[in-house]
Structure formats: structure tokens, C-alpha cells
Design goal:
seven-stranded antiparallel sheet, three-stranded mixed sheet, about 375 residues, disordered C terminus, 10 strands, 13 helices, PH-domain like, alpha+beta, rod-shaped
């Protein structure tokens, strides 16, 4: 049989005479003879070519598939070995992919609940301090002290109705989105844009009660465990055990990684309403806020980005809104008027420093209320 032989030292091929006696493959080129034991052969066969190599060697032999089959006729062991090797590799890769998928999408989510409940309270508290410190650099606290105190008083009233293992620490923050976040260890962040979007203190109370429920039910740590599990898998696949995968997931996620599934959101709605009722507050605001967010997402193009941010981390379904409406009760207002107005001013851009000089914080993507629209003249240059 004729073939082409590559000795592995360069890309040059050499004409070769090939024979096989069942135990040894003999390759003869000009001036050289190579004898390869059948037990050391590795064969890669496709429709046109057979590529034969010797283990632990860079040399290889290439010949037509039909000639290789003729050469090894009756030597089933060689052909089965080569074909089974490729098939086993493919099967192994498929099994590994399926196992990884099951672990990521089934195993880790199922284990996250028990792991969260087993997490020591002091460990989660320390983790919460770390998360809170990192996010404070991204979402600075609003400056209105009276408004912050009003928000904390509301959080305390709701937390008194729970069995949360952590004290609830609520804070209004500057962030260009309508949202609220529960962090590990009882920290709850409410964005100034959400406070501005709320029409009543009862709406803020509904959102705050929902987030406090995530804390009490340990949903936050479930999200952390899911993130860590995905990070460990990513680290195994691409990080080489360096921890890069885990760090990538945690840094990429931060607060948004602590979003929850539909079951957890429904549970937080139910427990949040229970806190409101136990505190003697109206729960109407929860349904009002959810419903208006859904309507504005559909009807107000200029607010789509901000409103969509809410629904991205708090999945919207008509069922949730209907459930809020069906379970709502009347009650006392969540705040008195003075506290509500203080909270509304807490993140406003017209806060003043002690020296009396006006200043403002410009949030990326938002136009200060007194700025003219692009292309619109200001009062000085306005035609009269």
C-alpha cells in the first residue's frame, strides 16, 4: 500500500510503502524503515483519509481510507480501537456538558436554599458590610438627614413585625434607576428615583416591606450562593483554579446578581403585605406601585430604561399585581406628611451645604429639573 509519511521534524512528506501483519505496522521510505507496534497506534479516520500516528511521537502516516481498511482487513481490533476512541470522546463531552448544565441550572439552585439557611448569621452580616461598602462607592447615600431618618423609622416599624435575624438598615441612595435592593445582612437600598416615582408613602412602604421579606426569608443569601456556585464552575472552566471565575461573577453581579426568581418574589410580596397589615398600615400602595410601573413601561418611552430596571430585578406578572389587589387592606398611612416630605427631599438636587451655598449632584443620564431641554434657550437668552 502507498501512503505519505511525515517524520515530525518538518512539514515535508515522503512517499512510503506500508504493510501490516496484524501486530506491527511497517513503513518504508527512501533509506528508512519504521516499525510501529499495533498496540501503540492511534488512528483518526474520516471518509477520505486515515491518519495514523504512534503514541508519544510526532510522526504520522496518511493514506486513503479505503487503502487503510484494505490493509487492516481482518484486524478488527485496530479499527474498533480508532473508531471507539473518537466516539468515546464525543460521548464523554456530551455527558460532561449535560452534567454541567444540570449542576448549574438544577443542582446549585436546589442547594442554595439549604445553604442559605445553614449560613452563620455573623458570616452573612460581615458579607453584608462588604457588599454595602462596595455599593456605597457606586450609589452614594442621599444627603437629607431628616429623610434618611424617616425612611429608617419606617423600616423599623416593618422590621418589628418580622423574625429577621438582622437589624434592618435602610438607606436612600443616588442611582439612575427606579429600584430597591436587599443586600446580605439586612441592608436595604432604596433609590432616589424610586422615591421620586412613588406618589404616596404607602407605595414606598410596600416596596420596603417586600425587600425586608427577602432579608427575613434568606433569599439574599440564596442569591449569593447561586452566584458563588456559578463562579466556582466558571473558575473551573476558564479560571484554572485561580478564583478568577468567582471574582468575575461577584463583580459583574453586585446588587443585580441578587435578583430573585418568581417564587421568591411571590413569597416576598406575601410576607411584605403581612408586615404592613401587622403594623396597621395600608397595603394598597404595593399594588398601586406595581401597577403603575407596568403601565409606565408600556406608555412612557422616555422612562423605559428606568422602569425596565425595576422589572428586570422584580419580574412582572399580571398574577402578582392581581394578588396584591386581592389581598390589600386599608390602614393608617405609612408616614405622616412631615416625614413624607422630608423623604421626598432627601435625594433632591437642591440640598444646601452648611455654608448656605447651593450645590447639586448630577446623576448620569438624568437632567437636573431646572436645566433647559437640549436645544431650548435658557431664561437669559430667551426671546421676549
Amino acid at each position: 500500500m502507498q501512503g505519505r509519511f511525515y517524520d515530525g521534524t518538518d512539514a515535508t512528506s515522503h512517499a512510503a510503502e506500508v504493510r501490516f501483519d496484524g501486530t506491527t505496522l511497517v513503513i518504508e521510505t527512501a533509506g528508512q524503515t519504521h516499525a510501529w507496534p499495533a498496540t501503540e497506534l492511534a488512528v483518526d479516520i474520516d471518509r477520505d483519509q486515515a491518519r495514523v500516528s504512534r503514541r508519544r511521537s510526532d510522526a504520522r502516516l496518511v493514506l486513503a481510507t479505503s487503502e487503510w481498511r484494505q490493509l487492516t482487513a481482518g484486524q478488527r481490533q485496530v479499527r474498533r480501537h480508532s473508531a471507539a476512541g473518537g466516539g468515546a470522546l464525543v460521548i464523554g463531552l456530551v455527558v460532561a456538558a449535560v452534567a454541567t448544565g444540570l449542576l448549574v441550572f438544577v443542582g446549585i439552585p436546589m442547594a442554595s436554599g439549604p445553604l442559605a439557611r445553614a449560613t452563620p448569621i455573623d458570616y452573612e452580616a460581615r458579607m453584608g458590610e462588604n457588599y454595602n461598602a462596595q455599593l456605597s462607592g457606586i450609589f452614594p447615600a442621599c444627603e437629607g438627614e431628616a429623610g434618611q431618618a424617616a425612611l429608617q423609622r419606617l423600616a423599623d416599624q416593618l422590621a418589628d413585625q418580622t423574625q429577621s435575624p438582622f437589624p434592618i438598615q435602610a438607606r436612600a441612595v443616588h442611582a439612575p434607576m427606579i429600584n430597591a435592593f436587599a443586600l446580605p445582612g439586612g441592608h436595604v437600598l432604596v433609590t432616589g428615583d424610586l422615591i421620586e416615582a412613588a406618589e404616596t408613602p404607602d407605595e414606598v412602604a410596600g416596596v420596603l416591606a417586600h425587600e425586608i421579606a427577602h432579608v427575613e426569608r434568606r433569599h439574599v443569601m440564596q442569591g449569593v450562593w447561586r452566584s458563588l456556585g456559578a463562579g466556582m464552575l466558571l473558575d473551573f472552566v476558564v479560571g484554572g483554579g485561580t478564583g478568577a471565575g468567582q471574582q468575575a461573577v461577584l463583580l459583574a453581579g453586585q446588587a443585580s446578581e441578587l435578583s430573585f426568581g418568581r417564587a421568591a418574589e411571590t413569597e416576598a410580596d406575601e410576607h411584605g403585605r403581612a408586615y404592613l397589615h401587622a403594623a396597621g398600615m395600608s397595603s394598597r400602595g404595593m399594588g398601586d406601585f406595581f401597577e403603575r410601573m407596568a403601565e409606565e413601561e408600556m406608555e412612557t418611552p422616555e422612562q423605559v430604561d428606568e422602569v425596565s430596571e425595576w422589572w428586570m430585578t422584580h419580574p412582572n406578572t399580571d398574577r402578582r399585581i392581581a394578588a396584591a389587589r386581592a389581598a390589600e387592606r386599608e390602614g393608617a398611612p405609612a408616614m405622616n406628611d412631615a416625614d413624607w416630605q422630608a423623604l421626598r427631599r432627601a435625594c433632591a438636587s437642591d440640598q444646601t451645604e452648611s455654608a448656605g451655598q447651593p450645590w447639586e449632584i448630577r446623576i448620569p443620564g438624568r437632567r437636573p429639573p431646572n436645566d433647559p431641554m437640549p436645544g431650548q434657550p435658557d431664561e437669559v437668552g430667551k426671546d421676549r
